[in-house]
Amino acid sequence: MLISSDHLLRNKLFLTLCLLCCAAVQAEAGTLSVIGKSRWVQVAHVFDGDTFRTRNGEKVRLLGINTPEIAHGSQSSEAYGIKAKRRLRALINGQLVQLRTDREKRDKYGRTLAQVYLRDGRWINDIMVREGLAHVYSFAPNFYWTDSLLKSEAAARNEMRGLWKSSRWRIMDASDLRNEHIGQFHLLRGYVDAVQPWRFRLAKLTITVPRISRQWFTPADLPKKGDKVIIAGVVRISSTGNLYLSIHSPHEIR
User: Fold this and answer.
1) What is the mean pLDDT of residues 159-171?
2) Among the options 53, 69, 199, 254, which is catalytic?
3) Is 130 a catalytic residue?
4) Is 111 a catalytic residue?
5) What is the DSSP string of 117-172?
6) One of 10, 28, 55, 61 is an active-site residue; which one?
7) Which helix (H) or strand (E) covers residue 17, if one does?
8) Does the pLDDT of residue 4 top 70, yes or no?
9) Taking the mean position of all CA atoms in its chain, how far away is CA 93?
10) pTM for this structure?
11) Which of 5, 53, 59, 86 falls 20 to 30 Å from 108 in CA-CA distance?
12) Is the peptide bond before 141 cis (omega within 30 degrees of 0)?
């Protein structure tokens, strides 16, 4: 049977339309798979400035930041701890919020680690940092949002917003460290001396990079002797009585 050229043309057009439809469906499926990495939850209760519980009982920890502690047990409240809790509660309590996760979804306590967004697009983690009610506190491998949060922290610090007005939180010279600072998070400033592989000193404080964290560093990330740096982390004391601080990513070298 002879097939007309018009008939062949119609078949080609039909086949082209089918291929376009399939491509559109695949593109939409790909978009949905990306969106599937985020989800919406209802906030039921705010514990403090960086932790809340959803209506379904899930505990959520705001990823990449830390707020001052509120009183619990025998521990008293830190400066700006209550203000941070009140602010987070005012922003999200009872609200439908979106959780966006990074590579590691939960912490060692089983809490979901997430960037939190309101329906109007406001980014809660960043708001807390910009208003000086939180500082950046990130751990590998969840670094996707860290650079943006550090910019907000620097702006809040430069303008002395919130906790950066308090002597507890503002940048301290490493030479001023005392035993009373052990166990506390601080931003410590000083000139680098006594450089060794994966460690260096600021005054009497030794800065170390634990073996497990070295994969996140390049040689260029580590300071050289004579460099002036700001280091972020928790002050510890060794079994020999020396003060030290471990850094786990280049972001902790401000």
Assistant:
1) 96
2) 69
3) no
4) yes
5) E-TT--BHHHHHHHTTS-EE---TT--TTHHHHHHHHHHHHHTT-GGGGSTTTS-E
6) 61
7) helix 5-35
8) no
9) 21
10) 0.82
11) 86
12) yes
